[in-house]
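Hello,

Our lab assistant flagged a job as stuck in the queue for most of the afternoon. It eventually completed. Since we weren't sure the result was trustworthy after the delay, we are filing this so someone can double-check. Below is the sequence as submitted and the structure that was eventually returned. Let us know if re-running is recommended.
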Amino acid sequence: MKVSQLIHAMDKDDEIVVDDFDSRIENQTVYSGAVRGIKRDDPINKMHIIALSALDDVIYVCARKPREKK
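-- returned structure --
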């Protein structure tokens, strides 16, 4: 599932944290905030979800950038 599919199903005021699975630990969080802050052309939308969890009314997403085709 892509991040764009998830945020399409969420309310615009819901809080979300998106972490890049392939990045170093200090650079993993690529977005933190309301769903409305993610624009249509943002590269976050194309990321594939690896893990999903929720805590204290916040959705935490661990995602990976799509692999480039050769």
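-- support follow-up --
The delay was a queue issue, not a problem with the job. The result is valid. The longest strand covers residues 48-55. The helical segments are 3-9.
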